[in-house]
Amino acid sequence: MFSSRFISQVRGIRHYSKAVDLSFEKYGNNGHISPIVICHGLFGSKNNWKSLAKALEQKTGRDIYAVDLRNHGDSPQSQEHNYKVMSQDLVQFISRHKLTDSILVGHSMGGKAVMSTALESPELVSKLVVVDMPPVPIKLGRSFRKYVQAMKEIEESKVSKQSEADAILAQYEKDQGIRMFLLTNMKRSSEGVQKFRVPYQILGDSLENISDFSATGQYDRPTLFIAGGSSPYSTPFIEQKKEIENLFPNSTLEIIEKTGHWVHAERPDAVLKLITSFVKEHLNVMTVNQQDTLYSRLYALKVPKEDLKTFQDGFPSRLDTYIQNITEWIETGHLTAFEIEQHIKDDLEIETLEPLEDKMREMQDTIETCIELSEETMEMQYKLKLTKVQSEWSGLQHFIRSLKSLMNEAQGQREIRRCMESILIQMDSLSLMIFEFQERRQQHVAFESLLVDIDNQVGPLFNDVERVYQRMTSETIQDDLLIRKHQLIQERWESLRVEIDELKTELKEDRWLAVFKQVADQVEGMMDGLEKTIYQYRQTPQSTCSTSSTDSSASKSSIEKNFDAKFKYYTPSIDKMLNMLGSGIASRVSKDSTTISRHQRMLQRWEQLKMTMDHLRQRPMSPARSCDTPFKSPEPDFLRASSPFALERGTTTPWRASPIEQMAPSKYRRSPIERSSWRSSPVEKYSDTSSVDSAREEKRVQKRASMGGMRSSPMMRRAVTPSLIPRPKTPSEIPRPRSSMTRKVVSNEKHKAVDSSLLNHRKYYKADAKDELDIEIAALINASPVTIHCQRAPQAQGKYYFGNELTPSLGGGKKIYTCKLMTYRNKKNKVLVRVGGGWQDLEIFLLEHMNLVGN
Fold it and tell me: Cα–Cα distance between 44 and 459 in angstroms, integer?
């Protein structure tokens, strides 16, 4: 079909008879001298790199060309498919679009295509990037042949929907991502049938050519290899390192771990960062060959060093030649300096002017000789020539000094530009890390290590931004590009700071919610313990016969002491913790409805519990009181309420259950919401009977009172042991025994599981008996109702760590606090802690700083 290859030179463009015109998509219109050309892999197209191409254009400021290789995408199809003809396609593309110093990027098959181009035409390629494909013959996996077979089956089935094609392809490939990648090659024909744009039969027959790599030569310019850590094509980079270095001696290898062959699809952020850094690295540095070319004409001229005073014969002619050689040398020096100036203005980095300065120092002796001759000669024409030489020499010296100043200024701007580019890359990386952190946080995945990485990156980034700001404001910089880029950095930094501040606030809220849950669990645990003690207390009889055993008396006394101890300790602790939670809720920026609702339920439950305990403490309970009569003392009036466990609402019994019976745990444990509705309010608890029953009860009480006044009081006997609880009067009427129809109270097994020794279920801080400050701090820590971690700093007097300051946090970390002891003569000693520029009471500090509460 094609004739043999021929090359012709027409306007500097090489044409190949076998080359095809590649379809492409261009991103950007920057006109930079070093554009980037991207080549896809097997079964791919230019659209696979669309997102990365746009990002590269923004990051590098260069034109990006994403091309379709032959037999792919919208490019022409050809029976011949190997790297030699693909290289010719790329060379023709570069030449026809007049691309200078192109940077070639290729993945998989496209990687071998760009490597072949760089080896055959190194003058057209300034840099090379190859993604997951070594420059060695490598056997392709069986999956590619299966893909060709699947494509053939799909076309033979004449499917009309892509979902039907996917169902067939699923029989050959389980990975949905790869299937979607392959199905991007499908398009609907005019008959409504889905067909593949790629000639799969040609590509299937050319798999051996695609796996081969026979290009020779050497490409000594910068080359970057990017490999996937889990890709089967990463092994040859290690095993055949020497062979690769022979072809590409100036190459580096970057491995992205936990990625397969499609590195750019699995980790586009990492690939973008690597390519951007590589493109910007030393791109505008003048090479050694360029420097040699720049100074070659100056090196070719010899510095005149003749001593004309020793020549007596032919002095005028020798002087003319001498002045002519000096003038020619100075003109060449001016021309060299002018070229250097143009290179600097073109942003080409020149490391030094030493070659020119060395020649200038050699020429200095000759110029001094000219000055002496000008003073000695009497002929005016020579005097004028020598004076002109001195003037041109002074001009050249001034020109070189201005070049130094210009070069230093360009070097400074170049450093600022590089710093800005580094800042932008760091900002992108930080934004991705924050995004990943939020994703992990939403998925409840561990993120502590990522949080530390964010902390470590924020500080250096802030220093770089501050350094650039100082240089941009202190120096007079007229470069519009730098000014615009600096404005972009300021805008993005402000946006990033807002994002970081919001992240800090969210972390504080999360920490507060964790603290709230911990403290609320402790409060509810103490309430559960109180309810169990109240239930046990309520089961104890009001009076004890003299015939009761000593063991029963001791048990009742133990229950009473247990209730008294819990009441004395739990009441102030719960009050303190509920107030602390209420203050924390009030100071929150955001309001969490669940937290507020739980706090309200705990407050209501605590108020009801306190009312019940107050009523219970008015009940005579000493087991040692007198008990001559087998009859009970009547219940107080406020305890006369119907039991919520009555069989029927309208049924009344002479004996009424006390409110404590309502606190008896149910057979099944209730949820927090059900428990809240169960303990609704004291009024509801004590008004279960009808108004008629209440009226009858009230009349009965009045009748008993009136009849009691007509009866004489029976003789009282002295109790066995004295009791501080006032002994009740003997009832004036024998109360009716408890009805057998009253429902029995069933104990709750879960309440039995509550440990009554809640006071001892915590870790205490052990103080140094020889240190008064440590003793006082231990007293505060151990007396706190909330568990707080405390650690004394080693070999530091008065230095302590408190709570979660030992764990990493955004913008925080391990922090040490300074404490001191204030002793008073007539008051209790106080411990102060250093906060900011002043001192604060340690007890108040621990209560106000919720994040110090330990887990």
Answer: 42
- Sign for the CA dihedral angle at 471, 473, 476, 478 comes to positive
DSSP designation for 788: B
In angstroms, rounded to a whole number, what is the distance separating the alpha carbons of residues 851 and 834? Answer: 17
* Per-residue pLDDT tens digits for 252-286: 999 998 898 889 888 888 899 899 889 877 555 55
Q: How far apart are CA 37 and CA 129, in angstroms?
A: 10
C-alpha distance from residue 465 to each of 115, 454, 472, 497, 597 (Å): 39, 16, 11, 12, 45
Cα torsion at 490, 491, 496, 498 (round to 10°)? 110
Name the percent of the chain in helix, strand, coil, to the closest 5: 55, 10, 35
DSSP state letter for 831 = E
Scanning 651-810, the segments in alpha helix (DSSP H) are 659-662, 672-678, 682-685, 691-708, 749-752, 772-783
Highest mean pLDDT among 86-90, 447-451, 700-704, 850-854: 86-90
Distances (CA, A) of 786 to 12, 298, 521, 572, 853: 83, 84, 11, 12, 7
According to the CATH classification, is domain 772-852 in 3.40.50.720? Answer: no
pTM (2 decimals)?
Answer: 0.41
CB atoms < 10 A from the CB of 369, how many?
19
The alpha carbon of residue 204 and the mean position of all alpha carbons in its chain are separated, in whole angstroms, by 45
Of the candidates 139, 173, 177, which has an alpha carbon nearest to the alpha carbon of residue 153? 173
Under 8 Å between Cβ of 602 and 523: yes
Average pLDDT over residues 762-769: 81
Residue 587 CA to residue 591 CA, distance in Å, equals 9
H/E stretch holding 271: helix 268-280
Query: What is the DSSP annotation of 712-744?
Result: PPPPP---SS--SSPPPPPPSSPPPPPPTTSPP
What backbone phi and psi angles, to 5 degrees, belong to 838? -140, -170
CATH number belonging to the domain at 24-138+213-284, selected among 3.40.50.2300, 3.40.50.1820, 3.90.1150.10, 3.40.220.10 = 3.40.50.1820
Per-residue burial over 295-325, b = 16 or more CB atoms within 10 Å of its CB, e = otherwise = beebeeeeebeeebeeeeeeeeeebeebbeb
Helical (H) or strand (E) element with 485: helix 480-539
